[in-house]
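Page 37, top half.
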Amino acid sequence: MFISRSTHKLFLTLFLSGVLFLVFGTPVSANTLTVDDCIKCHVLETTQVAEDGAAHQMAINCLDCHVEHRPMSANNIPSCAECHVGTDHYTLNTCNGCHNPHQPLKVTLTGELKMECLTCHSEQGEEMEANPSVHSQVSCNYCHADTHGYTPDCMTCHASHSPEMAVTDCATCHAAHQPTLLEYPSTTANNLCAACHVTAFNELQATTTKHSTTTCVDCHVNQHATIASCNDCHGEPHAAGIHSKFPNCGDCHNTAHDLNNLQ
């Protein structure tokens, strides 16, 4: 026997209504459901909201979002943007890729994400754009993997400059979002510089001049590759004629790390 599409749809609606009648005891519409009814079928979702719902538990309830129930509503799942507005992040249309609306603050990062992250973390994006490196070529969750807020150790990917250096030493000179811009505080210890500049460090250790008591950052101030002029500390200690004939201090005094070898 042929059954038309409209007749089939009517039978399906009547069947579902019967199922809902057996569950809830009365024919179900948007007007008869209560929040207490939701847990009768949606145990997982209501449990998640109760445990990790954040504002979705405290400020609203199930029926504030799901205002109707299927089959009376073809789509009873609202757009997040109906409530969440005001920032670039809320204009994204891929909310469910990271957020479970029943546990909105338990963010799981899936796929390769960058543009999505920068809608909140614009400062980090600006740092990477201004200082291109390998870090700026990968997705944000290449490093901040799987779970929002996770920060890896540098040595997960990078080898230490020396066996003496610990993970906590990396941030003394490097910022993760601009790793090639080396800046360091005035308290930086010489042994951290020695990890890369071993010859200069050994010469400075061996000298018997007053330079042996200085730190690397006394001369190489604040930013890597900064080289001070001898005149910054010493002025012009010799007669004008000597400075005129030998304008480069290193012509006589070798390097600042090895003043013992007077030329």
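Page 37, bottom half:
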Amino acid sequence: MENYFTLIFGIVVSCMVYSITLFQFIEERYNRVYASKLLYAVIQVGAGTSIVLINLLNMPVLNLLSMLAIFGFVEVLFYYDNEKKTIQRVFEIEVLILVLMACELVGYLMLDQILWRMKIDRLQPIMIECMKITFSKLIILIIYYSVITKIWGSANKSKFTPAQYMVHIIIMIYSLVNFSVIIFVVTNGMTVSFTEKILLLVNMFCIVFADLYLLYFTRFVEENGQLKMKLRLLEQQSHLQYDNYASQEEKYNESIKILHDVNKHLNMIEQIYEYDRGNEAKQYAKEIGKLLQPLAIQQFTNNPILNILLNEKKKYALLHNISFDMQIGNVEVKFMEPMEITTVFGNLLDNAIEACNTLLGQRYISLKLDTFNDFMAIHISNSSSGQIKWHGKKPVSNKGRNHGIGLINVENVINKYNGNMILEEKNGVFSCDIICNH
């Protein structure tokens, strides 16, 4: 009876870990064919139950083949990906099954080494097997969540933060401590009854699924943080675009006011000429020219969006006593979307203006834009206080966590065009150099 319960325990734990892990992988990478949540719940329970029943036959080759067949069948009939062929998706899930089994083997060998080095040889074979099953599943979970999902499991790869690494280390230590306690109890003959051994099995079962929950929760927190960051990036882009539209609306209102009186001004000039007062008419025309001058947009490039943005930033800089020098060659920026042009140049120039506004002495901004072969080169520099804090190769905003994401937006656009961005602060000058492929 004891061996029977241990066998059931091992099979259930093993199959549940495999099923949960594989379905998480599939759900994250591919799309569901049908909308019914109940259908997919039934599919997941059915697949897990089928694997358990087949594993009860205790035929390793059949176990492997059945798992490959069941998950390949589920992948083909119930999931899809427009960018990948069916055979490619099936191949991915089959390879993952083999990788997980390799991780399981690593767990078996690791526990063998631990028991051998600790000179523990008084355990009952059935308890050793049970511990190997549990320990190997912990190794699968840790490798899957810490390694596999980072390089393969999701289309959106991200780096672990130090806090996430710490959580994984704590989970591993927690599991090892629990196993050490179980080994100590068993090797010292402290389990004498069938009930106590069942409780130990339950304890090992709880260790596995507590780790599964904690690792999944860590992943959930990570994805939640990424979604919040994306939301802040979108908000920052929308505010930038709104500011641009607000500026254009202000220009439009100014033009309406001026154009409203144009006919009156023209009539006045005609009347002046009728009285043969040509000099006064010329002077009046010059005054009208000055009045219309704010409506004129200086053509820096052949892109109207960039021209509007540069005119606005230059106007703002001059109003705030910031020298704004531009050297623009025969550059083509049509390969960028209007939103991307606003994101890149708007963010970089806003950052430069903001830095200058904090200074009391000489304040200047320099923009150089040109092409070199198939590349567009951007150089923006501005006077700086020299007190910028850096994290890695990026400056850290001192305005809180919701600030400083403009550069992330810029970097996302640059990466889209296989470009590179270098930021530097030296001798009171902050500079940004960007190279983009057309």
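Margin note: The longest strand covers residues 364-372.
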